[in-house]
Amino acid sequence: MDVLTALLLVHLIPVSTPKNGMSSKSRKRIMPDPVTEPPVTDPVYEALLYCNIPSVAERSMEGHAPHHFKLVSVHVFIRHGDRYPLYVIPKTKRPEIDCTLVANRKPYHPKLEAFISHMSKGSGASFESPLNSLPLYPNHPLCEMGELTQTGVVQHLQNGQLLRDIYLKKHKLLPNDWSADQLYLETTGKSRTLQSGLALLYGFLPDFDWKKIYFRHQPSALFCSGSCYCPVRNQYLEKEQRRQYLLRLKNSQLEKTYGEMAKIVDVPTKQLRAANPIDSMLCHFCHNVSFPCTRNGCVDMEHFKVIKTHQIEDERERREKKLYFGYSLLGAHPILNQTIGRMQRATEGRKEELFALYSAHDVTLSPVLSALGLSEARFPRFAARLIFELWQDREKPSEHSVRILYNGVDVTFHTSFCQDHHKRSPKPMCPLENLVRFVKRDMFVALGGSGTNYYDACHREGF
């Protein structure tokens, strides 16, 4: 049974409390029907994928290569795991999710207890400020806004263990006596990203030596380091946000749904929309907690489906209109440029930064996926992972290749810089120079201006 089938079979979907006041114990749950991918986009199915409920271990394509290829370095970009909402639906009770970690509670992971113990020893660890003031694991009986949940920790313990089995046990990427400079760790200043990074790292390197761990702080969700000022990128974003707004105005069913929900919670429609109710609703959905009710009625599954369907339509139009693509090329350039620099140093035989981990957000991964030309890639789910692998051909040691994987699926030949490679070459992987040329030149060509570098593209006149 594949992971999705298992997920669909075990996961129950929340329903709103009936008006006759039946208790939650006697309330019926609704099981989703499809066990294979539905032919038409199904908002419930898409939401289940987004939740990414930990279940059976997944099959993945990381680390697959012909036997004469040697793994040189690995670059991992993750979205934080499952979190408590960032917004609340006005005038409703917050969903009651417990953010303390309990080893024998679902979702379970065999390393959870050891992870808690190890994190409690790391309070004096040296992280770049302000990370050193953040808690190393979630620990509130009622989750705080945006806080990582136990599900989020387990998702990344699983990610780390999967990468350990492939990259350390099978490919020996790091020696047993690995040193601090062989890891590169970077996270934004949110507890959920730091904790997700630590959970993955613990799954990858159980009981790691705290003295060897140093997380750098990244102030920008784009991980643009010292290259964040980019006026043209911001103009693309403004146009993209305008497109989103106009699409929403055209959707009468969405407006009707927001109006119904606003009546239920007794606030103006505008206020409800501003509270971004889908964020809170997804938490109810992913944790199988009933949607909120008031004396005016209940927010229900039909409301959820309408809003989720609009999100899916928005993503589809976003791909067609290309404004987000322009934003993505400029938004993703600094982090991709940093990654190819790290890869190029590894090809010279340098042994530092062989494993890089960026613990980030959906707004980090999404532009990178778009910039790479992965237009069919789904929006980053909780604990999504995007991985760049660098390989050396042992038969021709001067030749290096890359593989790109998204949530365990090899998407290398779907990228814009390598989709024609199969037609021209019998080689099983994408030459590193294709990625380097893409980042150094083709990203700017795709923007359509005369700029051939990041600065010029960011400061183009008359855009």
List the helices and strands and how they pair.
Layout: H1 3-10, H2 43-51, E1 69-79, H3 112-120, H4 150-170, E2 183-187, H5 191-204, E3 215-217, H6 231-250, H7 252-265, H8 269-274, H9 277-286, E4 293-294, E5 297-298, H10 301-321, H11 323-347, E6 355-360, H12 362-371, E7 385-393, E8 400-406, E9 409-410, H13 421-424, E10 430-431, H14 432-446, H15 454-458
Parallel strand pairs: 1-6, 2-3, 2-6
Antiparallel strand pairs: 1-7, 4-5, 7-8, 8-9, 8-10
Helix pairs in contact: 2-10, 4-5, 6-11, 7-10, 11-12, 11-14
Describe the structure.
The protein has 2 domains: 49-230 and 323-459, Phosphoglycerate mutase-like (Rossmann fold), CATH 3.40.50; 231-321, no CATH class. It has helices at 3-10, 43-51, 112-120, 150-170, 191-204, 231-250, 252-265, 269-274, 277-286, 301-321, 323-347, 362-371, 421-424, 432-446, 454-458; strands spanning 69-79, 183-187, 215-217, 293-294, 297-298, 355-360, 385-393, 400-406, 409-410, 430-431. Strand 2 (183-187), helix 5 (191-204) and strand 3 form a beta-alpha-beta unit. Helix 7 (252-265) runs antiparallel to helix 10 (301-321). The protein is of the alpha/beta class. The longest helix is centred in the C-terminal third of the chain and has 25 residues, at 323-347. It is 41% helix and 11% strand. Strands 1, 2, 3, 6, 7, 8, 9 and 10 form an 8-stranded mixed β-sheet that branches. A two-stranded antiparallel sheet has the order 4-5. The protein contains 15 helices and 10 strands.
